[in-house]
């Protein structure tokens, strides 16, 4: 089965999916997204992803998104149609389609896009043993990195710079502090065995995997 998509009530192959060219996600990056892994047909940290999405929608004043139950039903149907057991679910909610103008349009329903693709998680396992290379770059992103918006151009440019350097990731540095990677939260282990990471703030994304990792570390009595 090809990768599957859902766009505002319609299911189909991903290469047949489309949104309006006047969608504000396209015109202004006026949109949020989440990427949820699923293994054996089961979503990982589903509730945490929805909570972060809801927080972002409230911060951007985007109203009218489906209920949590509706999100779950759409996601489950996409996975069923794709016949995949392991993969990635992408969710994007924009303010909707309207004549191009900066202020919020009135009475416009949000655009909801969801896609499902196969992903081979085993490909990451060798990296756990060998490690990956990284470069550091100035953090030039906007000041609300805690919101998972689709305005990712600084991260795109940083990833490309890493690729040119033969590296896997770019680490952002702001005012002398490592904040996070272009597409990752960053954790380090110091000489005392403590986990060191940037505290939650507007400088970094409150990563779902980050939250789970730190909870596991604290349960194992590893200092964070």
SSE class: alpha+beta
Shape: globular
Strand order in the sheet with the most strands: 2-1-6-5-3-4
**How many beta-strand segments?**
11
Residues in β-strands, percent = 15-25%
| Major beta sheet summary | 6 strands, antiparallel
Bin the helical content: 25-40%
Cα(first) to Cα(last) distance is 44 Å
SS field, number of helical segments:
6
H/E series: EEHEEHHEEHEHEEEEH
Unreliable segments of 5+ consecutive residues: none
Q: C-alpha Rg, in Å?
A: 19 Å
Name the average pLDDT: 96
Which features does this protein show?
single chain; 224 residues; alpha+beta; three-stranded mixed beta sheet; 29% helix
Kindly describe this structure.
Helices cover about 30% and strands about 25% of the residues. By secondary structure, the protein is α+β, with helices and mostly antiparallel strands. The strands form 3 sheets. The protein has a 6-stranded antiparallel beta sheet with strand order 2-1-6-5-3-4. Strands 7-8-9 form a 3-stranded mixed beta sheet. A hairpin with a 5-residue loop joins strand 10 (about 190) and strand 11. The longest helix is centred in the middle third of the chain and has 15 residues, at about 70-80. The termini are far apart.
């Amino acid at each position: 089965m090809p990768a599957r998509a859902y766009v505002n009530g319609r299911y189909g192959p991903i290469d047949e999916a489309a949104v309006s060219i006047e969608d504000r996600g396209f015109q202004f990056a006026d949109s949020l997204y989440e990427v949820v892994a699923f293994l054996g047909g089961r979503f990982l940290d589903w509730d945490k992803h929805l909570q972060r999405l809801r927080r972002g929608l409230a911060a951007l004043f985007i109203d009218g998104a489906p209920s949590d139950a509706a999100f779950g039903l759409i996601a489950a149907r996409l996975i069923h149609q794709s016949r995949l057991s392991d993969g990635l679910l992408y969710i994007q909610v924009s303010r909707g389609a309207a004549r191009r103008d900066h202020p919020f349009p009135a009475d416009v329903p949000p655009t909801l896009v969801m896609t499902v693709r196969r992903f081979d998680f085993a490909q990451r396992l060798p990296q756990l043993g060998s490690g990956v290379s990284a470069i550091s770059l100035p953090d030039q992103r906007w000041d609300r990195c805690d919101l998972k918006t689709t305005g990712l151009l600084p991260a795109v440019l940083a990833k490309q710079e890493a690729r040119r350097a033969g590296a896997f990731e770019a680490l952002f540095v702001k005012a002398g502090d490592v904040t996070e990677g272009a597409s990752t939260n960053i954790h380090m282990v110091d000489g005392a065995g403590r986990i060191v990471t940037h505290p939650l703030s507007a400088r970094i994304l409150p990563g779902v995997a980050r939250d789970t990792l730190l909870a596991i570390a604290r349960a194992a009595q590893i200092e964070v």
